[in-house]
Amino acid sequence: MDLNPPAGENYAHPWICFFHVVFKAAALAFYMLSAFFVDNFVIIFVVTVLLSALDFWVVKNVSGRILVGLRWWNEINEDGESVWKFECLDQESLARMNKKDSWLFWWTLYLTAVVWIFFGIFSLIRFHADYVLVVGVCLILSIANIVGFTKCRKDAKKQLQAFATQNLTSRLSSTIQSAFTVV
Amino acid sequence: MSHSDTIPLHSTSQSDIDEIENLINSNPSSVLPARPPSPPRASIPISSAPIPPPAFIPSNLPAPTNPKTAPVPSVSSAAPKPPLPPRPSGPGGNISASGFGSPPNTLTEPVWDTVKRDLSRIVSNLKLVVFPNPFREDPGKALRDWDLWGPFFFIVFLGLTLSWSASVKKSEVFAVAFALLAAGAVILTLNVLLLGGHIIFFQSLSLLGYCLFPLDIGALICMLKDNVLVKVVVVAVTLAWSSWAAYPFMSSAVNPRRKALALYPVLLMYVSVGFLIIAID
């Protein structure tokens, strides 16, 4: 993964990118700065966790779909078993995804989790159990999205390979077929 | 091709059969270079495109939607099936449509649809759980479309109400209430699973969270009316309501001989929350 955004193109969905980033940044900023301005732990907790939850929803349902074309969810089927479903756009649309969008998506996803882990370590060192609770909740939400989308991407890559192979074999077989009919 | 994401799915989705036919018909014409152009025969290639079962059962999404879902399947739940691979689409290039008349997938729906869907799911889950219908056929099957938004809001609301009612140590009250309820729900679920019951981890978390709704109402009333007698009556009523709501799901999940073992901790947790509500002044 490169550190710089791919040059030469603009964001295809600037508003979605904005929302993707803003809730994460707001949660982190509020958590960091609230220690100076806000005296009430309850407010810090509720606002931070609410922003994190909103960010979770936005990433899972909006920016994941639109920026990288992936989606994951869980279902309970008729037998009462839980099934995790992963879904991605078809290959042509995936190839047409804006590179800058997906670069931003993945980078902010991982970076947020890392920053929360740092905050968690600070709180642990200082033995602030209630702040560890806040960080814990936000971290769970971030990691949930990371795991879901990473699995989805792996699935999409596997499917791409399978599709390519299948395409290749079907073309090969029809070539052979036609070769035999010519003879 | 080139369907942008904002085009609703229905008008552009082809059925499976059309796509397969496209695949079949396009191949021969592209691969026969030197022959005189002949009408493309519907020759079936040797390795025919497999028709995987429609993988997109329309789920009401967890936002995820519901948010707060950790995708790591819980160890003790029934082993989840490996994720069904998304169906490869044909050369028509449309977004993978589910074929054979099953419902459209959710990748390309507008954002507002997602919001509405999630909201309606919260409301329907609430109605299902909190206003129990005694004539319901299979209580265990309800709350299939679990979501964690409802429980999240109810737990936070209860914590806020308790914290507001408290005159001292507001932050501690909130943190304790939240941690107690969240950890309690997890532990109660583990209890059911360890008793050999059949319940999905997140379904149970969702259920226990939704059953807090009556206690939320009780806490609100107690916050507004400070009379001890009123508080006791209100809490008793809402406690009974919560337990009655949680009873069918919990009892249907375990072996009948172990019903009491599964239900007792649930009752205990709700009673302790009830005492918390009464005792806060």
Automatic annotation (TrEMBL), chain A:
Record's protein name: Golgi apparatus membrane protein TVP23
Family: Belongs to the TVP23 family.
UniProt GO BP: protein secretion; vesicle-mediated transport
Keywords carried by this UniProt record: Golgi apparatus, Membrane, Transmembrane, Transmembrane helix
Membrane topology, record value: Multi-pass membrane protein
Record function comment: Golgi membrane protein involved in vesicular trafficking.
InterPro entries associated with the record: TVP23-like
GO cellular component, one term: Golgi membrane
Coiled coil segments of this chain: none
Predominant localisation class: Golgi
TrEMBL record, chain B:
Segments of skewed composition (Low complexity): 57-79
Keyword Ribonucleoprotein recorded: no
Chain spans, region Disordered: 1-103
Transmembrane residue ranges: 148-166, 173-194, 200-221, 228-249, 261-280
UniProt domain Yip1: residue ranges: 142-275
Domain of life where this protein originates: Eukaryota
Coiled-coil stretches: none
InterPro entries: Yip1/4-like (IPR045231), Yip1_dom (IPR006977)
Name of the featured protein: Protein YIP
Organism the protein comes from: Olea europaea subsp. europaea
